[in-house]
Amino acid sequence: MRVVVGIGGGIAAYKSAELVRALQQRGHEVQVVLTRAAQEFIQPLTFAALTNRKVITGLFSEASQQDALSSAVEHIAVAQENDLLVVAPATADLLAKFAYGFADDFLSTLYLAFTGKVVLAPAMNTAMWEHSATQSNLEVLTRRGNSIIEPDEGWLACGTIGAGRLPDPEYIAERVSSLTRQKKDLEGEFILITAGPTQEPIDPVRFISNRSSGKMGYALAESAAKRGAHVVLISGPVNIPAPKNVELIAIHTANEMRNAVLENLAQSTIIIKNAAVADYYVADVPRQKLKKTAARLSLQLDPTPDILAEVGQRKGDRLLIGFAAETQNLLEEARRKMNSKQCDMVVANLVGQDGVGFESDWNEVDIITRSGQTVHAGPAGKKEIAERILDQIATLRLSLRAVDTPA
Ligand code: CTP
After folding, report:
1. Is 291 domain-assigned?
2. Residue 393 CA: distances (Å) to CA of 195, 317, 368, 370, 400
């Protein structure tokens, strides 16, 4: 796994060199980021020598004029290239910045851009640790899905005894490793995932579409492949790279998506219909561009095929998972769709709120199964939400197998 170690400005920063070694000994590739305050306690050179790569020390560190542009987007590249961010020591100041979404240095900016797992190992004076401001920041971060490694109790650098000491680097490295150990619970499954929007042409240069970014479906595809499944991703036009180890089929219209789904249905064992499929299309697209006139223009729209409902009728013993993006009556609508489209599970999310759902890196969902169980996930990064959805799918798969297998 590729791990970023973010180091805050506390006396415990000296232990971070050992943490880097402990992570490397467990097979992780490590990129170090030092805050300005951390550099008062420990030199970048120590980490450059340990990792044999450039240590990041600021938003525009070492930027010559030629590479100023690449430096300006370095936090995005680091966020995309790494699987886990561990911040040790996480100072009270860093916890506050993360909780409130400040982005005034490299580490806090990276935190916002990071969609993988985040582990925070706070270390500070006992009074600062126990202060209600720090504790309420921790509450926000925990709710967000960040893993917190609680500080140890003992002698602190300030000469007092109490909670606030950074735990042993070996212990932190072990916790990080256990989070990165890849589950292979979807081995043997053939998973068909649809993602992104569809584009329905109205003439040779224009189309009707929607705001879906494809991020949720791509995160599901990437995680399912990592968890051992063979994944076919049928995607409408999006601006994100294809996940590794996934078979990508690019389509534009709802009809093309339907054909691609039906062609791959026979081999599939699980179908996840995450795409935001257009409900209407223009059946007779003119060959020439529509010309502007002073008159009002009406478009004749026909319903697209409901792919999920069609798959529901032919699904056999495959698991079928639908999505329901709603602006109101979330659970009621999700249950209605589960029944009318014969899904085994529906992932419901409210859209039209700020910061989560369409176009965002964040999401908050309710995962509802046919048996009536509802699991709430988020708000969290879409990669984390994808893991939670796949956890529920793997559990449902196991419980259905147990019912099928006579004792
Ligand atoms: N879906 C589909 N084919 C369509 C429309 C939707 O397969 N033509 C799937 C979506 O991929 C999603 C689920 O149906 O998994 C629900 O989509 P949504 O747009 O929320 O629901 P609709 O059935 O279109 O209902 P409504 O527009 O009334 O909310």
Report:
1. no
2. 17, 14, 11, 12, 11
Asked whether 306 lines ligand 1 (CB < 6 A), one says: yes
**Nearest residue (CA) to ligand 1, atom 17:** 324
Q: How far is the CA of 83 from the centre of ligand 1 (A)?
A: 32
For residue 19, what are the contacts with CB-CB under 8 A and spacing of at least 6? 5, 86, 88, 169, 172, 173
Q: Check 68, 72, 157, 158 and give the catalytic one.
A: 158
End residue of a domain, out of 155, 180, 205: 180
Same domain, 119 and 254: no
Final residue before a domain boundary, out of 133, 158, 180: 180
Mean pLDDT, the chain cut into blocks of 10 residues (407 residues total): 95 96 94 96 96 88 53 78 95 98 95 93 94 95 88 80 89 89 89 98 97 95 96 97 95 98 98 97 96 92 97 96 93 95 95 68 89 84 87 90 68
Strand-pair partners of 33: 6, 56
Query: Quick one: 126 and 236 in the same domain?
Result: no
Is 158 assigned a catalytic role? Answer: yes
Residue 323 Cβ inside 6 Å of ligand 1? The answer reads yes
> What domain range includes position 172?
2-180
Alpha helices in 210-350 (DSSP H): 215-226, 254-265, 307-314, 330-340
Residue 162: strand, helix, or coil: strand
- Whichever domain contains 123, its CATH number is 3.40.50.1950
CA of 70 to the centre of ligand 1 (A): 40
Nearest CA residue ID for atom 21, ligand 1: 324
